[in-house]
User: Fold this.
Amino acid sequence: MAADAASVASGHARTYQLLIRVSRRVTVTVGRFGTFDFPAGWYVYTGSAVRNLEARVRRHLSAHKTLRWHIDYLLAQPGVAVRDVLYFVEPECALNQRQIGEILVPGFGASDCRAGCGSHLKRLPSRLSFRAYFGRDRDPRALPK
Assistant:
């Protein structure tokens, strides 16, 4: 379950999910990790930060940054945008393992994962509605395009 604002403000939330919209297929070279195709669609990236969770998320949302983590390379592409951020108290790998979706790039965002997640980036099924996944109080029409 998503953390409330008080959990985020108090520092109890330590995990986040970025809801990412890829508006058209992109081919991305992710540092030395390799080159990968990402079809258009909705993706969820699960990450965490022991300290400064909000700063980590702000960095992901920033257009101007040094490309350091796998997710940075995807987010730097034209037509790729974070459309929502959810915060959680639950540990990163436990949350990620419950996350439905297809793994397109094994190991993406999971180079330090010891729980066998496979990837911390998953493509959501196209038949899954945004509202069904993220709840009735979240309406994609209210999000920036």
Observations:
- The longest strand covers residues 80-88.
- Residues 10 and 35 are 39 Å apart (CA to CA).
- DSSP finds five helices and six strands in the chain.
- The radius of gyration is 14 Å.
